[in-house]
């Protein structure tokens, strides 16, 4: 349609130019009036504007405006090259032969994968621990023994209301192309804060919640365990930093803490002990 519109506008502009030149000659000979020449000039300006619009449409579509007419008896070729404004790898194709497409439809998905983004969902409570430029190490399922590295490039300004997380963007060099779009990763952020809290680090499974409080079970004697209320400064999915409630060397239950909590809740005596 764009090629046909351009060819039609080009033909009308040529005809308007020829008519204007003819009328100007006739006016000089006293045959045509000045009003006819003025009307021809207006028509010529209008057809020229239409030609420029049709030519610009071709440029937007990536078709050379210098295209000529097809040879006699032939039709204009229906194959038009579609050029991407960026270089990269073809990641997916939405186009197919015979499909009707409209302006704005995505035909191909291209990407430059020499550098990729790792998007981290950071809990709101951990937001103060992250800053631009911070080092990030992560692994992916495809290469579980390989540790990749990147740095925080951007921290989102929006807290997701359901998950209470903020999106953090990490820029990662990917010259070898091993990292692919839509991979899942497990990331660790390196935190270094002067004067940070010091305490005892427990595996996350050793810390249980009871009546809204964090507790851990300490073995007082074989078969007898005490539930200790804890004060926790920091935690993640793997571990917790305890700053009160435990002393170095306390024998804390690591495996089976949940079972002890269940027994404690069922106990009629309670008093912070479980057998």
Which key phrases capture this entry?
275 residues, alpha+beta, five-stranded antiparallel β-sheet, four-stranded antiparallel β-sheet, 14 strands, 24% helix
Structural topology:
Elements: H1 2-28, H2 34-61, E1 89-93, E2 108-111, E3 115-123, E4 135-140, E5 143-160, E6 165-173, E7 185-189, E8 200-203, E9 208-210, E10 213-221, E11 224-229, E12 231-235, E13 239-244, H3 257-266, E14 273-274
Antiparallel strand pairs: 1-2, 3-6, 4-5, 4-7, 5-6, 8-13, 9-10, 10-11, 11-14, 12-13
Helix pairs in contact: 1-2
In short:
This protein is 24% helix and 33% strand.
**Biggest sheet record:** 5 strands, antiparallel
Q: Please give the count of helices.
A: 3
Portion of residues in helices? 10-25%
The number of distinct β-strands equals 14
